[in-house]
Amino acid sequence: MEIIKHPAKYSDCLLPIFDNYLPDNSHKILDPFAGTGKLRKVRSNCILLEIEPEWVNESGAIIGDATMMPFDSGYFDAICTSPTYGNRMADSFEDKQPQKKYKRYTYKHSLGRTLTANNSGSMQWGAKYRELHMKAWLECYRVLKVGGVFILNISDHIRKGAVVPVTQWHVDEIIKIGFMQIEHIKVETKRQRHGQNRGLRIDHESVVVFNK
Questions:
Q1: 12-211, CATH topology level
Q2: Taking residues 152-165, what's their average pLDDT?
């Protein structure tokens, strides 16, 4: 079976932070945007939900949609996940130029096909992106038990030379749903230096910890 590289796996430096904030007694941990399942390097028994079959085949995840999860209410002790950022990795055009100034790192180019419907990896920052993630966070609230931990890995990005406040939008909406923010850790990570704004990059990712 061919292994298809995921263009946006968790940075290794984030894994110890996840491990630190996931309670030791958490027996049921979910990543609803699982990708290739790298969270299992931290908690090998976590449950993974992923919408793309190629990455499900690699990770052993359950195939499914984070906005319509196949789990009972209050089932999980903790959730740890990283949604897409609404950046240029959601570009959908096909770049077939044999010679180009920079390599494209997008979800579509990685899979070699159009993404499954309702995959936020095809959504630029905007109303459609925000609507999908609000549905996903409401589902996270539903399937997490009272007192459970929710860990979000997210990042802003640069669009037309300006910072798009993706992180703060997610934090604000998650709090509106009913979660309580506990910590916000900014972690310097190696960012991709490709594309139109390759000279301008946010130098960190956020790990935001909430309780229900």
A1: Rossmann fold (3.40.50)
A2: 82
DSSP 205: E
Beta bridge partners of 187: 205
Cα(39)–Cα(21) distance, rounded to whole angstroms?
13
Q: Residue 200: pLDDT above 80?
A: no
Please check whether residue 59 is in contact with residue 34, taking contact to mean a CB–CB distance below 8 angstroms. Answer: yes
Checking if the pLDDT of 23 tops 60, the result is yes
More confident residue, 52 or 95: 52
In the numeric block, which tokens belong to residue 79? Answer: 């959730």
> Closest Cα to residue 114, out of 149, 135, 90?
90
Which amino acid is located at 177 in the chain? I
129 membership: H or E segment, kind and range: helix 127-143
CB 66 within 8 A of CB 38: no
Per DSSP, 193 falls in state -
Cα-to-chain-centroid distance, residue 118: 14
Backbone angles phi, psi at 116, to 5 degrees: -60, 145
Q: Which residue has the tokens 């991709």?
A: 192
Whose tokens are 């399942």? That residue is 37
Q: Which residue shows structure tokens 């027996």?
A: 27
Strand 144-154 to 204-211 pairing:
antiparallel
Residue 198 identity (one-letter amino acid): R
How many Å from the N-terminal Cα to the C-terminal Cα in the chain?
40
Task: Name the one residue in this structure whose structure tokens are 């979660």.
Answer: 179
Tell me the residue type at 113. R
118-153 burial: b if 16+ Cβ within 10 Å, else e:
ebbbbbbbeeebbebbbebbebbbebbeeebbbbbb
